[in-house]
Amino acid sequence: MQTTRRTFAKTLSAVSLGVAALSLPLFAQAADTIKVGILHSLSGTMAISETVLKDVALMTIDEINAKGGVLGKKLEPVIVDPASNWPLFAEKAKQLIDQDKVAAVFGCWTSVSRKSVLPVFEEKNSLLFYPVQYEGEELSKNVFYTGAAPNQQAIPAVEYLMSKDGGSAKRFVLLGTDYVYPRTTNKILRAFLKAKGIPESDIIEEYTPFGHADYQSIIAKIKKFASEGKKTAVVSTINGDSNVPFYKELGNQGLKATDVPVVAFSVGEEELRGVDTKPLVGHLAAWNYFMSVKSPANTEFVKKWSEYAKAKGIAGHKDKPLTNDPMEATYIGLHMWAQAVAKAKTTDTDKVIAAMAGQTFQAPGGFVSTMDKENHHLHKPVFIGEVKADGQFNVVWKTKGPVQADPWSDFIAENKGKKNVPEKK
């Protein structure tokens, strides 16, 4: 069958018109939305903690869109799964920035994932909002840290353990997952404890890999260490799904909070979902928010999340909706970014960074959250909660108000003279 030049031209013209017709709505749609990236592990060892952050980010985006979006445009989420694979976080970050053209990214949990993506955001001058407590010792103009620095969680928690109300602990087990956050946090805590007169012989450190599941010998070692006379406490920086076997073994060996209290920095309501918490009553967690915090803003936040989780059929949450600290930090971060974009009247990175300085937001935790004008960290209150039989936390101690973050800990000698202002690169 022969095709004449005229027939071919007509066909090509028709095809071109068809492609153009198909393309116009796509271009129009792209122009009418602002894309934001969601970079969380939805599979692998960290999915137990991170999946719900993806969901609360989507809820927050829906909430912002229901009020008209930003700059007259709806926010469009782009979700990727780096699958608890640290190098893959960097690849997915590049994809979000280069291919998907997102205006900002909300994501990461572990510090190793944040360290993996940091060069990407700095090189491409893009924005990351990081919603989890971390070890400090970092300050980037391209990152806003909406979780806690060590002086907003780790230091107050150990001070509490040493106080009369916290049990007057004199010996410490620093137990963590083997990566940068636990090791650096424990370096800070060792120096802090030394400054408080605690000898090296009264501190032990233990580390386990991601996904570790057998805590029998470690719990036995803790019991032996605690039996040697002085009041002992455990500081846990275990991350991810390893928390489930750790707490189960704690219950199995009958290590009660009255004997050896455990204070956790990465265990909240979500991580305790799969654990029988009755044997764990009285053990502690230090955060900047708990679901049980009583405030009108928190009542509204929990209600919104409960309705959203049920409507979307979110696994686990449609029957038992839970909120936690990194969820609150994600919620605050997204709202503050939207406010900064509105103030800057653009999604341009440098202009949004300038507009983020001093942003405020009524946090579910019952305080007005403020983004520091210089160091890209939130001013946050500190809460210490005891595990209750129902997996919730009873707040037993809190600061009088928000605490200003100190990213460069005074307990690390090399930090002397370092400025709390991100360097321009």
Explain briefly what this protein structure is.
By secondary structure, this protein is of the alpha/beta class.
Notable traits:
Rossmann fold; 7-stranded mixed sheet; 425 residues; disordered N terminus; 5-stranded parallel sheet; single chain; alpha/beta; signal; globular; 16% strand
The CATH architecture of the domain at 151-290 and 411-415 is 3-Layer(aba) Sandwich
Distance between the termini: 63 Å
- Which structural class do you get from the secondary structure elements? alpha/beta
What's the alpha carbon Rg, rounded to whole Å? Answer: 24 Å
* Strand arrangement, major sheet: 7-6-8-9-10-14-15
What do we call the CATH homologous superfamily of the domain at 151-290 and 411-415? Response regulator
Strand share of the residues? 15-25%
The description of the largest β-sheet is: 7 strands, mixed
Low-confidence stretches: 1-30
User: Can you give the helix content as a percent range?
Assistant: 25-40%
* General shape: globular
CATH topology of the domain at 151-290 and 411-415: Rossmann fold
Query: Average pLDDT value?
Result: 91
β-strand number: 15
Helical run tally = 11
Explain what this protein looks like in three dimensions:
This protein has 425 residues and is an alpha/beta fold. It is built from 11 helices and 15 strands. The protein has helices at 5-31, 47-66, 86-99, 111-123, 154-162, 180-195, 216-226, 243-252, 296-312, 325-344, 349-356; strands at 33-39, 74-80, 104-107, 128-130, 143-145, 171-177, 203-208, 232-237, 262-264, 284-287, 360-362, 368-371, 378-379, 383-387, 393-398. The strands form 3 sheets. It has a 7-stranded mixed sheet with strand order 7-6-8-9-10-14-15, with helices on both faces. A 5-stranded parallel sheet has the order 2-1-3-4-5, sandwiched between helices. Strands 11-12-13 form a 3-stranded antiparallel sheet, with helices on one face.
